[in-house]
Structures are given as C-alpha cells and as structure tokens.
Amino acid sequence: MPTIPQQIEELAILFADISGSTTLYETLGNVVARQMVVRCLGVMTAKLATHRGTLIKTIGDEIMCSFPDAEAALRAACDMQDAVENGSPGGDTPMYVRIGFNYGEVLREANDVHGDVVNVAARITEVARARQILATQAAVDALPPDLRHKARHIRRASIKGRQAQLDLFQIGWRADDSDLVRVGNPAHRKPEGLQEQLVLRYLDQEFKLSDRSMSASLGRGETCAIVVRDEFAAERHAIVEYQLGKFFISDRSSAGTYVQFSGGDTVHIVGEETMLRGSGAILLGRPFSEDPAGIIEFSAHLAPI
C-alpha cells in the first residue's frame, strides 16, 4: 500500500456552515432546500481565489478551507458573510452562515489537513451564531496590527473535547459592527452574579446544565441524566451540552429527536444538533403528533451562580 506524503505547515483553517439548513429541508422539501444550499456554498467558495484560499472539502452544508495566513482567512470570512447577505442565494428566503477560523501548525496529507488546529476551528464554528465570525487567540495574534481592531474578545470559554479554556474573538464584518457594539455595551452584558442555565424536566426528574455541569444524556439507559420510560427512546438517544453560553442537543439515534419551541416551531434532527433557545419540549424517537407521554420539558434562563 503506497505511503501518503505528509507535511507540517502553518495555515489558517476556516469552516463556514449554513445555519438552520435542517429547517430549510423540513419546510421547503429536499429538492428546493438542496438547490438553495448548493447556491449558498457556491457563493462562499467563489471568494476563495481572491484570498489565496483552498477548498479542502464540502461536508453537507459546510465548507472547510485553508489559507496561507490569518489575514487572508479573515478577509475571506468577511467577504463570504457579505456575499451571502447581499447575494440572496435563497431567493426570498434569507440564508445565514456562521464561520470560525484558527491558525497554527497542521498536518497535510495529499488534499486534506489534520490536527488540533483543524479540530478547534470546527468546534468554534459549531458554537458561532448565524451571521457571526469567531476566531481564536492564535488567529488574532497572527493578524497584522492594522486588522486586529476587527477582533473583539467575547469570553474565555470551554470547548468540547478540550480541558483548557479558549479565548474567543468575534470579527466585525458589517459596516456598523452592530454585534460588536452589543458585546461591548454594558447594557447588553450578562449581569454580575448570574449564569446561563438550562433546566430539563421529565416526570419527577430534573437536571440543570451550566458551565459547572456541561452535559446531560437522554435515553432509556439507567446511566442517563434523564431516564425516559418510552419504548421509542434509544438507550443513549441524545446529548444536551453547554457550549459558550448556549445549549445544544445532539441526536445519537436512528429514529431522531424532535424539539418543539414555545413559539410553535418544531425541528426533527437525525444525527445532527440544534440549539435549544427559550423554552419548549423534547421528544425522543417519535413526533409530537402522536400525543406521547415521554415529553421532556426544557427552559433556558439566567440563574444565580
């Protein structure tokens, strides 16, 4: 078997992910949603050549790219957000992307790259909001001085799979930088003495997630944080996790997980994750239309530390 050539390089690794694509498929159907996703990915990849970027791979509704330096990655990220915002790849349906990038040594094998820098870039993209660009301290440090003003420190946060916390920075890409104003404005900061908390309730069981207790498993298994007495639930059906002040539920089953928000929207995830916002209900393995008894209630709010 031939040996794949390996090479250590310093690169900026960027992930750009279409936010809310699962909902697009559910509401618009596979054909229309896929056409929109392909157009949006095309709009973003069209910006690579200008900034000396290389498309490493497309992963569903996400692209992974490399750049020779952090400056090129930042400029490409800003251009991608602007192109999606103004190019209307979804027609009358708004489409939004979230982007994260990191910088450092990676292992190149043929047309792919591997290593901790890649993994961190992927994780921070997962926790970014729609229309947001996040960067690591390593990426910001590698920027030229005249571009560092675009980076605003958000917080020091835990990332799944890493013991040490990371300093994360938001990159301003709009002309008004309205998101950065909100971050810097004391009126929009989290009040002292409070923390984000998600409460899960099922029958007489209750579990609270925060930065002190960052994950909870849901399923039939007796070791789960919430044990659901429902034949449609798998042994370890789903995982709820705290990441950067937000709460996500990841489906680990074959039947999927249903999430109904208090506003009435319902999403069905299979092998995917979605963010839990506000309050609502979770159902493992079957839809709410079947009037099942295994409903898990959730509520996200600020609570005293």
Task: Describe the secondary-structure layout.
Blueprint lengths: L5 E14 L1 H8 L1 H16 L8 E6 L2 E6 L2 H18 L8 E14 L2 E3 L1 H12 L5 E4 H5 L9 E7 L8 E6 L6 H7 L9 E9 L2 E5 L5 E5 L6 E2 L10 E6 L2 E6 L5 E5 L4 E4 L3 E4 L2 E6 L11 E9 L1
Parallel strand pairs: 4-6, 11-12
Antiparallel strand pairs: 1-3, 1-4, 2-3, 4-5, 6-8, 7-8, 9-10, 9-19, 11-13, 13-14, 14-17, 15-16, 15-18, 18-19
In terms of per-residue confidence, which ranges show pLDDT below 50 for 5 or more consecutive residues?
178-189
Structural class: alpha+beta
Query: Quaternary status of these chains?
Result: single chain
> What is the residue-averaged pLDDT?
86
Question: Which sheet architecture does the biggest sheet show?
Answer: 8 strands, mixed
Helix and strand run: EHHEEHEEHEHEEHEEEEEEEEEEE
The CATH architecture term of the largest domain is 2-Layer Sandwich
Distance between the termini: 57 Å
The fold-level CATH name of the largest domain is Alpha-Beta Plaits
Total DSSP helices: 6
CATH level 1 name of the largest domain = Alpha Beta
Radius of gyration: 20 Å
Rough outline:
globular
Number of domains: 2
Instruction: Report strand %.
Output: 35-45%
